[in-house]
Write a structure and sequence with these properties.
Blueprint lengths: L3 H9 L12 E4 L4 E5 L3 E6 L7 E3 L23 E5 L6 H9 L4 E7 L2 E6 L4 E6 L8 E6 H17 L5 E5 L6 E4 L3 E5 L7
C-alpha cells in the first residue's frame, strides 16, 4: 500500500529511547502481520507477503533486538460496532483536524451519526453511520491521533481495501478502533475527570 511505512513511522517516531523496541515496526511472518504501537496507538496490518520475522526502526533501518509485546490482546472484538463509508472522510474534514491537531476532540456516537466536536464546543464534522448505534457515547481523544488514524483509513481505502470501516468502542475510557478485515487502527482515549 502506498504510504504504508509513513503511517507506521507516524506511530514509532515519537517513542522515547527508554522503550527502543517500540521504535520499530514488528514484521511477523508467522502471523502475516505488521504492527507498530507507541502505547497510545496501535496499527495492526495484515500482510501475507512478509518474508521473515523481525523488528526494524523505519527511520534508521536498524534491526532491533528484543521481544516485541503481544499487541493482539489489545484488539478486542467486544463492545459496540458502528459502520461508516471511508469516502465520507473528506479533505475538508482532514484539513479541520490538521488545524486542531494539538487539541482534544470529542467523538460522539449517537443514533445514526458519528460527530466530531472540539472539546466543549459544537460539532465541526459529521459522518453518517450505516447502522444505528445501540449505545450512545462521548469519547475524548487527541486530535492528532484521530487525524493520523483517519488519514490511514483514507489511504487504505484508496490503495488496499474498498470495505466499509467498523468503529468499535466500549466506553469513554477504553480504546476505540477503526477496523476492516485488513487492519485495526486502535487509539487510546483521553480520560477526563468530572
Amino acid at each position: 500500500m502506498k504510504n504504508l511505512t509513513t503511517h507506521f513511522t507516524n506511530i514509532t517516531k515519537g517513542v522515547s529511547d527508554s522503550r527502543p523496541i517500540l521504535q520499530g515496526i514488528n514484521y511477523n511472518k508467522e502471523a502475516g502481520v505488521m504492527a507498530a504501537t507507541d502505547s497510545h496507538r496501535l496499527l495492526y496490518f495484515k500482510n501475507e507477503q512478509i518474508p521473515a520475522t523481525y523488528v526494524q526502526n523505519p527511520l534508521t533501518l536498524e534491526f532491533l533486538d528484543g521481544h516485541y509485546p503481544d499487541v493482539t490482546r489489545l484488539l478486542s472484538l467486544s463492545g459496540n460496532n458502528v459502520h461508516f463509508d471511508p469516502k465520507d472522510i473528506t479533505p475538508q474534514f482532514i484539513a479541520l483536524l490538521k488545524a486542531m491537531k494539538t487539541d482534544v476532540i470529542e467523538i460522539k456516537i449517537q443514533a445514526d451519526l458519528l460527530s466530531f466536536h472540539k472539546e466543549h464546543e459544537g460539532s465541526f464534522f459529521n459522518i453518517g453511520l450505516q447502522n444505528t448505534a445501540t449505545e450512545n457515547e462521548v469519547i475524548a481523544a487527541n486530535a492528532k491521533y484521530v487525524l493520523q488514524g483517519l488519514q490511514f483509513v483514507v489511504d487504505a481505502y484508496k490503495f488496499h481495501t474498498k470495505e466499509t470501516v467498523t468503529f468499535n468502542y466500549a466506553s469513554p475510557v477504553r480504546p476505540f478502533t477503526f477496523r476492516t478485515s485488513c487492519y485495526d487502527y486502535l487509539i487510546t482515549p483521553i480520560r477526563r475527570y468530572q
